[in-house]
Amino acid sequence: MDSSDWPTSPREYRLDCPVGFGAFGTVYTARVLIGQHTGTKVAIKTINLEQFPDSNLQQIMREIQVMRLNAHANVVSYHVCFLSGNQLWLVMPVYAGGSVADILRMRYPRGIKDEALIATILKETLQGLFYIHQNLQIHRDLKAANILIAEDGSVCIGDFGVTARLREGKVAKTLVGSPCWMAPEVVDPEARGYNYKADIWSFGITAMELANGMPPHYEHAPMKVIMLVLKSQPPDLDRGGSWDPGFREIIRSCLRKNPDERPSADQLLKKRFFQKAKSSDYLRTQMLLSLPPLENRIKVPEEFYNAKPSLNTAQDFSGSWDFEGSSGEHGAKPQGDDPLDTLPEDEYDPLARLGESE
Question: Residue 314: is its pLDDT beyond 80?
Answer without folding.
Answer: no
